[in-house]
Amino acid sequence: MHYSKYYPVDVVNGEGTRCTLFVSGCVHQCKGCYNQSTWSLTAGQLFTEQLEQQIIDDLNDQRIVKQGLTLSGGDPLHPANVDQVLALLKRVKRECEGKDIWMWTGYLLAELNVKQKQVIELVDVLIDGKFEKDLADPSLAWRGSSNQVIHYL
Amino acid sequence: MKPVVIKRDGSQVPFDGSRIKAAISKAALVIKDNKIQPDLIVKEVSKSLSMLEEVDIHHIQDAVEASLMKNGHIELARIYIEYRHDRDIARERKSQLNHEINGLIEQSNASLLNENANKDGKVIPTQRDLLAGIIAKHYAKSYMLPREVVQAHDRGEIHYHDLDYAPFFPMFNCMLIDIKGMFTQGFKMGNAEIEEPKSISTATAVTAQIIAQVASHIYGGTTINAIDTILAPYVTKSFEKHLLTAKQWGIEDAHAYATQQTEIECYNAFQSLEYEVNTLHTANGQTPFVTFGFGLGVDWQSRLIQRAILKNRIAGLGKNRKTAIFPKLVFAIKDGINLKEDDQNYDIKQLALRCASKRMYPDILNYDKVVEVTGSFKTPMGCRSFLDRYQQTSVTDDGEIDSELIHDGRGNLGVVSINLPRIALQAKGEQKVFDELLAERLHLLKKALDTRIERLSDVKASVAPILYMEGACGVRLKADDCVADVFKHGRASISLGYIGLHETVNALFGHDQHIFDNEVKQQKSQQILQVLKQAVQDWSTQSGYAFSLYSTPSENLCDRFCRLDTKEFGVISGVTDKGYYTNSFHLDVEKSVNPYDKIDFEMVYPAISNGGFICYGEYPNMQHNLKALENVWDYSYNRVPYYGTNTPIDECYECGFTGEFDCTSKGFVCPSCGNSDPEKVAVTRRVCGYLGSPDARPFNQGKQEEVKRRVKHL
pTM for the full model? Predict the structure, then answer.
């Protein structure tokens, strides 16, 4: 898996203070996407074990306390990303007590395949649906367009 | 043949040797030289000029100097040259005076008109104030201040702040008004005798009047320390009044009725106060710099006031719901009162967070840290000037000595700032030279500050009745009493200011590595501040006045010092190349770090410069994520005393965009539709410790450049 950007301290993508990972690879290619550079599966850098360890460490940091981890992209539920995302989330749930997981995906919750559903079982808040330019509204919390839904799972 | 003399104003007069004779004789008198024969010099000069048809004054003076030197009157020549130099400067100032007045009339002097973001140089009363300022400054520089102080100011080695007011006028800088004393003891204002208010709405109305009066008599910020607890008794009075009404009219649930009416009255009272403060125009031609401190009161009355202040601010001003620029709100946070979830005022902290995310204010005061750093808890005067601890002793009726810790009624006598980067540039990287120059300059700076004390030493209370006779300063002097004691023994502070610690360290130790990433540089910067701190401590011990070290916000100064230094030393990478100097000890605005790391970087400095400080973080829109904002506030609690969060709250009335406008060299532009019409946008930025609307009144160039370069810390 590739990732485009990792923010060890983030306040824009989900509630509270978070660690946020933008993975690479997205098939939805929504018009007006603010992150076009992340569409390609090989955009950015290779997601290494080292980075995975850093995420775990950042989440457990006692100085800058995090509420949890956010996965966005690209699409963390892109078939090519699912395995590694699942592995990461399992580690977070195992090693980072009390941290929640937020995720943004272009897929719809109701239409996920078995593997994707395995990932979602570990997610606390999912924002699903494509970005619809005509329904865009910058005043929305956590959503780009009003068709998207925040699922508190 | 005698030449024609062209005078400086262009008029022509015949050459007159007796004028030279008079000048030389005057100079001779100074050094008691009776050997000189002025006629001889006059003859020689006349001869040297006789071939010319016309000659200007400069030329004649050069000839006199040459003749004096040639005839061995070296000392006399020196005096003559010095006198000439002084006259030249006086003359130059006179023409400078005309030039500045002209700039005001023609509205062409941008630096004068934009010097203070809080003054609208287009309106008549402000122009009157600016004109008074031009002349007061001119007079003070020409006739009141020591020559070396004026020269150092003009060269940009030091900055004598607020020359347009003091020392010409015997004014001081900023203060905490003793509202409680004024209310409980009554006072006179204009033609009216004011008794203690009998309701919260009267109390806020009178408060606005007091602010207007006080702000007209001082030139810096006016603060009401703990407005919630000070005005709480008047909420009680309102309640009692409403309760009485309920009983008179036989209202069944009288208590509920009175509670509701009191809540409404309190909200409306603070709404009026908010509008009053923002529409006031003081005699200084500006909206007064007002700060309200609040947050520690836990009784229901104080809580009601706290909520009223925050809710009004959140609501905004006018039909566009514009962000109020004044008063500056400073919310106190204390463990056990409102810091943690089970504290009784935690709900108000949540409201404060919401308010800060939408309106930038309140900034927060972390109680324990303020006490640790400044000796006791108090709200800053104006935007960031902090008083030290002060015990007022008095003898009671029983003849016992009573000692009380007081803050209200105290003030700051003013600031003179030192140009640290200049010293570093002059030292050319030599620490030893830097130390010597710094010592020299501090000596001069003390001299400058002493003029502020002297100016107020024999002033009578009647120059500012509201301050000295009616209780704003916490005293009730008689008209002919001298005010000097109000400032002595540490009751008032007087401040050494500084800016550009960042550039100073770069100039001294190079800028290959950023100070943020270099511990040695950080230690060096602290050592420099310690030298300043030591100086003010020594001065305090020697004089009995509370000299303090103040982190100058430098709305105007960031531009001025850098401009003058660029002229003298050129564009120097890491020092003068940005077009502004960094605010006090602050982390360079271009350095991209998260707010937690920024707090860690800056947290050591307030304790050293505890006469004035504030730390900031630059944030994205946080309106949907108050939890994250609270995380940073909580992080700051044990680290920095005074913290502000800058968030993008600009609005475009054309397309409805809210967020952050693009800051360009030409002004502020809506990123969504390109609109930059000041009538149809609301742009709000932190200028110094205060907010400003740079769309309506542009910043100076240096400040605009600095704002342009600010990076988000998240």
Answer: 0.87
Q: Take residue A23 and report the two structure tokens written for it.
A: 């993975």
Could you tell me which chain B residue has the CA closest to the CA of A14? Answer: B625
pLDDT, residue B1, reads 60
Select the residue of B620, B624, B628 nearest A17 (Cβ to Cβ): B628
> Is the separation of the CB atoms in B614 and B343 below 8 Å?
no
Q: For residue range B296-324, what is the model confidence (pLDDT) as tens digits?
A: 999 999 999 999 999 999 999 988 888 99
pLDDT of amino acid B113: 66
B381 catalytic residue (yes or no): yes
Marked catalytic residue, from B116, B173, B419, B506: B173
Contacts 24+ apart (CB under 8 A), B453-457: B453/B413, B453/B487, B453/B494, B453/B543, B453/B545, B455/B144, B455/B166, B455/B167, B455/B170, B456/B170, B456/B172, B456/B413, B456/B483, B456/B484, B456/B487, B457/B482, B457/B484
Q: Quote the minimal CA–CA distance from A13 to chain B in Å.
A: 9
Q: Interior CA angle at B220 toward B219 and B222, to 5°? A: 115
Preceding peptide of A138 cis, ω within 30°: no
Evaluated on CA atoms B281, B287, B293, B295, the torsion sign reads positive
| Dist. CA B150–CA B248, nearest whole Å | 69
Q: Do B238 and B258 touch, CB atoms closer than 8 A? A: no
Q: Mutate one of A5, A7, A12 to test the B interface: name it (highest B CB count within 10 A).
A: A12
Active site residue B385: yes
Tokens of B321: 């719901």
Nearest to A15 among B625, B632, B658 (CB): B625
Nearest CA distance, B427 vs chain A (angstrom): 40
Q: Select the residue of A63, A67, A141 nearest B624 (Cβ to Cβ).
A: A141
Q: pLDDT tens across B123-173, in order?
A: 888 888 889 999 999 999 989 999 999 999 999 999 999 999 999 999 999
Q: What tokens appear for B325 in the block?
A: 């620029």
Contact residues, chain A, for B657 at CB < 8 Å: 138
pLDDT above 80 for B698: no
B121-127 long-range Cβ contacts below 8 angstroms, 24+ apart = B123/B285, B125/B281, B125/B285, B126/B285, B126/B286, B127/B285
Q: Please classify residue B78 by burial: count the beta carbons closer than 10 Å to its beta carbon, then call 0-12 exposed, 13-18 middle and 19+ buried.
A: middle
Give me the half-sphere count of Cα atoms (radius 13 Å) on the Cβ side of residue A79.
3
Are the beta carbons of B658 and A64 separated by less than 8 Å? Answer: no
- pLDDT confidence of residue A36: 85
Classified as helix, coil or strand, B420 is helix
Rounded to 5 degrees, φ, ψ at B693 are -115, 85
Reduce the DSSP state of residue B649 to 3 states and report it: coil
**What is the token pair recorded at B709?**
């370069």
Q: Between B557-569 and B701-709, two packed helices, what is the crossing angle to 10 degrees?
A: 100
What angle do helix axes B124-139 and B74-105 make, rounded to 10 degrees? 180
**Structure tokens belonging to residue B393:** 């002793």
What distances in angstroms separate CA B557 from CA B72, B132, B495, B690, one per listed residue? 46, 21, 16, 15
Contact status of A17 with chain B (Cβ, < 8 Å)? yes
Do B374 and B387 form a contact (C-beta atoms < 8 A)? yes
A137 touches chain B (CB under 8 A): no
How close A115 comes to chain B (CA, Å)?
31
Which A residues 44-63 touch B at CB under 8 Å?
63
What does the pLDDT average to over B278-293? 82
ipTM of this complex > 0.90?
Answer: yes
Q: At what angle do helices B557-569 and B420-427 cross, to 10 degrees?
A: 20
Buried b (16+ CB within 10 A) or exposed e, B81-107: beebeeeebeeebeeebeebbebbeee
Q: Is B109 helix (H, G, I), strand (E, B) or coil?
A: coil
Q: What are the start-end ranges of the H helices in B465-543?
A: 465-468, 501-509, 519-543
**Number of CB pairs, chain A paired with chain B, less than 8 A apart:** 39
